[in-house]
Amino acid sequence: MRVAALRVELHLPTPQSIKEKRAILRPLIEGLRRLGSYSIAEVDHHDSWQRATIGVAIAAPDGKSLAMHVTKLRRYLDARLEIEVVDIFLSELEEPE
Predict the structure, then answer these.
(1) pTM of the entire structure?
(2) 32 with 59: CB under 8 angstroms?
(3) Above 90 in pLDDT, residue 76?
């Protein structure tokens, strides 16, 4: 089994309030959940209107499947016009020896 954690830094250009920010993040997170069995949460910049950080945990049976899931997530995020992906940090869990 292979496991990865992604930290996705986002810029949201249009919100003028936390309520508007949530209106953008909620459907984004739900769309990510529909792509696969991922654990997703907003993990930073809770009080900023135009910044957000979401964390995504992915488990896959092998490295090839894990890479496929990461690619699928990146494509989904890049296709969203209401957000800008500033950076994505990927951490893979090491297998015990």
Answers:
(1) 0.82
(2) no
(3) yes
